[in-house]
Amino acid sequence: MKSKAVLNLTSPKISVGVSSEFAIWDRPVFLLNDNLSQEQIRLVDALLDEAVENGFIVKIGGVKL
Questions:
Q1: Contact of 48 with 58, CB cutoff 8 Å
Q2: What is the pairing mode between strands 6-11 and 57-62?
Q3: pLDDT at residue number 65
Q4: Which of 5, 13, 17, 48 is most enclosed, with most CB atoms within 10 A?
Q5: What does the pLDDT look like over 22-54, one tens digit per residue?
Q6: Full-model pTM
Q7: What is d(CA 28, CA 23) in angstroms, rounded to the nearest whole number?
Q8: 10 touches 59 (CB < 8 A)
Q9: Residue 8: helix, strand or coil by DSSP?
Q10: What are the residue ranges spanned by the domains of the chain?
Q11: Burial of 62 from C-beta contacts in 10 A (0-12 / 13-18 / 19+)
Q12: Torsion angle of C-alpha atoms 54, 52, 5, 9, degrees rounded to 10
């Protein structure tokens, strides 16, 4: 059995989800849709790149209340 670490982050301020499993060209849909600042976009992008590089999964999405 193979396993992989998953970091699942949620926020009520986020409406569209993104994952490190998404292709790089799909990221802007998420990053631009939630009106993130340039600093936040760079942080999320770096986190997703780090996950891919180190073999774990990061999922970022909204909270359903």
A1: yes
A2: parallel
A3: 60
A4: 48
A5: 877 777 777 777 777 889 888 888 999 999 999
A6: 0.79
A7: 10
A8: no
A9: strand
A10: 6-62
A11: middle
A12: 120
Paired tokens of 55: 């073999």
User: How many other β-carbons are positioned within 10 Å of the β-carbon of residue 24?
Assistant: 11
Q: Tell me which amino acid residue 37 is.
A: S
Distance CA 61, CA 48 (A): 13
User: Which structure tokens are listed for 12?
Assistant: 């009520």
Q: Tell me which residue has tokens 């059995």.
A: 1
DSSP 10: E
Place of tokens 């989800």: 17
CA 11 from centre of chain: 12
Element (H, E) at 31: helix 27-33
